[in-house]
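Let us practice reading a record.
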Amino acid sequence: MKKPNYYLQITQTLNRLYKSHPSYSIGRHISTALDGELWSITDKEFLDSLLKYEVGLGMDIDHSDDEIEAIIKDGMNLNVIFLNEEEED
């Protein structure tokens, strides 16, 4: 039985990600898929992480950088939002 070529499968997956999300950098794809785990993983684990990321990305809605920034700012101000809601009650 032939051993799987994970390197080839990783590059094919990255190519599909580039085609489906050309505005995302390769670094963004890799860092999001691996969540900081880079040095200690095997090629198979790398491929598995990329594939899971690809599936999740396919279910996600595209947001502009401005929208993402607004979401992050809102998340950082949750305590203010909750305080305002409590005051209204």
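A brief commentary: The chain has one domain: 6-88.
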